[in-house]
């Protein structure tokens, strides 16, 4: 992933140096296990702790071998005595090291993403609580529908982020596995005790069964969860972008001091961060297909998955980490224009209260068909000629005055009834609980 869309912590995690260091850790832990079994002389693993690995030396040897693990072993072997070097990779196959190290690194990356997701969800929770009863125009098909609460929009995000968190935790649990089981996974040249020792040291569990590789449905699940997280962020970003449009003006993403919105138009304050999130979420979703296609490998393994994963896993985790932190900044600094929200509710001259009028007429004796036709006729007339509002037209309608005298009609144009269930919805969601605050 290019630096523009990554954070230093995740870049460092996926750096070549960090990857080779983790390979070396796996190798040394395996030697420790062999020592405990009495196969390798005592003290070798301790001396191997002085070994180092240089990406430049790995690259040098790989240009000759065309095999990265053999190149790695040669680069490490240069930094220790030949007597100790001969025990590195004892009884192992390349994927024992690569897959175990990959699981370890991937779980570190997922732990970062887990923390990012928790932090964003708490920011969204604060937004939802702050605007629990803030009226806003609800829209369906992009058109004015009925008033609702801006807090409910944020609550919807909070709940979805919670499901993302559940999915991430489940996928992380299934990815917390490793394998040191040999060339076809049957421990022909290495005892299970070596695998158990390495796994315990790295906080990973041996897979119940592997071939030469861990099965890629685990990795595919991780990618699909990350794509879902990205899609949730895209959903949030799309809503913010629509609400920031000039004609709407109800929210605005943060605009920093000195920031400029356009090279040509000094007045512009564009939702560029939200647009960036929507764009990069498409990249995340694009990784789902190669992740799924990596699952069916030939027999006990082929390496058709390997090249795709070298790009896909670092990029997908790096992008998810970046997008979560970007959305966190947007939510923390979101400008909420409550006055504009109220203005927009009344923009149509009361048309958005049409269902209340319809139901009231039915309750007072009209058939639904007759009531719907009457209300729609006045609504369409008001749309065509807004100089006379929907409400004023109804007030002049004899049939309406007969059934809804006095304040009965005016009460149908109040916002309060549209927020009457908000408390119950919040209680049902659990967002106000002590547990949710932690």
Number of helices, where a helix is a run of at least 4 consecutive DSSP H or I residues: 20
Terminus-to-terminus distance: 33 Å
CATH class of the largest domain: Mainly Alpha
Indicate the CATH architecture of the largest domain.
Up-down Bundle
Question: How much strand content do the residues show?
Answer: under 5%
Q: H/E element string?
A: HHHHHHHEEHEHEHEHHHEHHHHHHH
Count of individual beta strands: 6
Strand order of the largest sheet: 1-2
Helix content: 55-70%
Largest sheet descriptor:
2 strands, antiparallel
Structural notes for this entry:
By secondary structure, this protein is mainly alpha-helical. The protein folds into three domains: 1-90, Fumarase/aspartase (N-terminal domain) (Fumarase C, Chain B, domain 1, Orthogonal Bundle); 92-342, Fumarase C, Chain A, domain 2 (Up-down Bundle); 348-422, Ribonucleotide Reductase Protein R1, domain 1. It has helices at residues 8-13, 16-37, 44-48, 55-65, 68-77, 82-85, 94-130, 150-175, 192-202, 217-244, 272-286, 288-293, 304-332, 338-345, 354-363, 368-384, 390-395, 398-403, 422-429, 434-437; strands spanning 135-140, 143-149, 177-178, 205-206, 251-252, 335-336. The chain has a two-stranded antiparallel sheet. Helix 9 (192-202) links the parallel strand 3 and strand 4. Helix 7 runs parallel beside helix 13, helix 8 (150-175) packs antiparallel against helix 10 (217-244) and helix 10 runs antiparallel to helix 11 (272-286).
Brief overview, please?
The protein has 438 residues and is mostly helical. It contains 20 helices and 6 strands.
